[in-house]
Design a protein that fits this description.
mainly alpha; 2 domains; two-stranded antiparallel sheet; 4% strand
Length: 154
């Protein structure tokens, strides 16, 4: 939020014109930190279930998306035209939107791989039960011996 207000107070210069390297690093710092965090988390979670990875990536993508939305609708965002030539603020926001969309898509792909969106298979196989002729215990039709007394059922 502090960076948003700082951009609103200063002149809106197109990218590459003035500002120096320090302002570029400052504007891209949140995206760099998020990218490093996601890379480390992805490497750790890739050894886990695809469902876990999908949930985490989708949540992080949503969080970055909220950050992008906040930048578009903030006080500072209203001072930008969002048309070429883009300012550093606008470029950072567009890159953040791309990262958010990519994380959400990657998360949904992993969720799809894990079968979250699949219908569970319903087994229509009916097991017929009978009774042991020796002890009267309940046995399934495929059993060769009674589980209670060991009597041969075939």
């Amino acid at each position: 939020m502090f960076l948003d207000i700082a951009y609103a107070m200063g002149p809106t210069q197109p990218a590459g014109q003035g500002g120096g390297a320090g302002s570029i690093i400052t504007s891209f710092l949140p995206l760099i930190l998020i990218s490093v965090f996601v890379f480390i988390l992805y490497n750790y979670l890739s050894r886990q279930q695809p469902k876990t990875l999908g949930i985490v990536l989708t949540i992080i993508g949503g969080a970055v998306g909220i950050w992008v939305f906040a930048r578009f609708t903030s006080f500072a965002g209203k001072f930008h035209t969002w048309e070429p030539p883009f300012t550093e603020y606008e470029i950072t926001t567009w890159i953040g939107a791309t990262i958010a969309l990519g994380l959400i898509i990657l998360g949904l792909i992993n969720l799809t791989k894990s079968g979250v969106f699949m219908k569970p298979e319903v087994s229509h196989k009916v097991t017929l039960y009978g009774f042991c002729s020796k002890c009267g215990a309940k046995v399934s039709s495929g059993d060769a011996f009674c589980s209670e007394c060991g009597h041969s059922l075939k």
